[in-house]
Write a structure and sequence with these properties.
Length: 187
């Protein structure tokens, strides 16, 4: 298994910068040689390449700090299963068939430790075994099913077409009729 880290911290996010420095230090650890990589200068062009060529898209933001997760949506449109906390788009997009979700925190739990424990447990008990499990013909049937569900879910619910249909149905058509959109109707 190889883990590739890519991302940027906001210029004002000193904690985020420190985390990325720690990740980079892991790439230099001889015990992890070749298993952990860090790609600098993450941007839309690099994201385009990554979402086409990975087996699993992992995004583990601290809940509720995910902005949206559009890279994960793009990965789904490339049939890439997800592993993430239930935040951003994944809170809405996770079906149980299109990837894995890190369970929510319980009251009083340390967020970082609990998320890390759950992440490692999912990787060890579910994700990695599913990836390597093959049928008699050497086909990873279960993994392929997750890929199909990732593509199906992202294609049905996370595209510009769906967004435009929602806007037309929920806002533009009611506005043309002189009606208030459903989201601003009095309760």
């Amino acid at each position: 298994m190889q883990i590739i880290f890519a991302g940027k911290a906001h210029p004002e996010d000193q904690g985020g910068k420190e985390v990325l420095q720690q990740v980079y230090a892991y790439t230099r650890d001889p015990r992890l040689q070749g298993r952990v990589a860090f790609i600098e200068d993450y941007d839309m062009h690099l994201a385009h390449r990554l979402v086409e060529g990975v087996d699993l898209w992992m995004n583990v933001p601290r809940v509720p700090l995910e902005a949206s997760g559009t890279s994960g949506m793009k990965a789904g449109l490339n049939a890439v299963p997800q592993l993430s906390t239930l935040d951003g788009w994944w809170a809405e997009g996770y079906t149980g068939l299109n990837g894995w979700a890190i369970p929510p925190l319980q009251p009083g739990e340390d967020a970082d430790q609990a998320d890390a424990d759950r992440l490692y447990d999912l990787l060890e008990q579910q994700v990695v075994p599913t990836f390597y499990k093959r049928n008699a013909r050497g086909i990873p049937v279960e993994w392929l099913q997750r890929m199909k569900h990732a593509l199906k879910e992202a294609g049905e619910h996370f595209t510009a077409r769906r967004m435009l249909q929602d806007y037309a149905r929920d806002y533009y058509v009611p506005a043309m009729r002189g009606e208030a959109p459903a989201s601003v109707q009095p309760a």
